[in-house]
């Protein structure tokens, strides 16, 4: 990090270091970050990120609870950054530039992901399975389906997670494992970002909605 400081000016710096092996290959969004030995990306701050950093600085716990709290916030912070990287992926390919064979291969890729979303192939692996190069797979998928490859996988996982939780078939930890996430904190962060509430609230909200509909009848 390089910074220019004026006299009597203070700088606060927070650094998070996370071993990629921690995720046990469950986070395909990280794949492209591991293809080269060096990756550097400067991003603008946001109110959500600033709030997370402040919450980490003001952690109200000590000992084991402090470790658990900070780990959860760190994973949530990482999720925000990775989501931002995905949104910045340039979608320069339009459907008009896709051949009939390209479109068929992209639908095949979507079908493969729909069957393997718990443990999807890597981007390069999916490209090999469909006969596309990874560039055309990434941009063609976004152009044709309106979402990224990894965004589609996450959508499938979150939809199944909500279905399981709404029906009370499993608790949050069990549901996370069922839909392919070994880290419950990371799963909860993605679920909250997708639906706007915690996975632990899912059953209660569903019951409340059902009761409201019953009263209307």
UniProtKB/TrEMBL annotation:
GO terms for molecular function: DNA-binding transcription factor activity; sequence-specific DNA binding. Keywords: DNA-binding, Transcription, Transcription regulation. SUPFAM superfamilies: Homeodomain-like (SSF46689). Residues 107-205 form the HTH araC/xylS-type domain. It comes from the Bacteria. InterPro entries: Homeodomain-like_sf (IPR009057), HTH_AraC (IPR018060), HTH_AraC-typ_CS (IPR018062), PchR_regulatory_protein (IPR053142), Tscrpt_reg_AraC-type_HTH (IPR020449). Pfam families: HTH_18. PROSITE patterns: HTH_ARAC_FAMILY_1, HTH_ARAC_FAMILY_2. This is AraC family transcriptional regulator. It comes from Paenibacillus alvei.
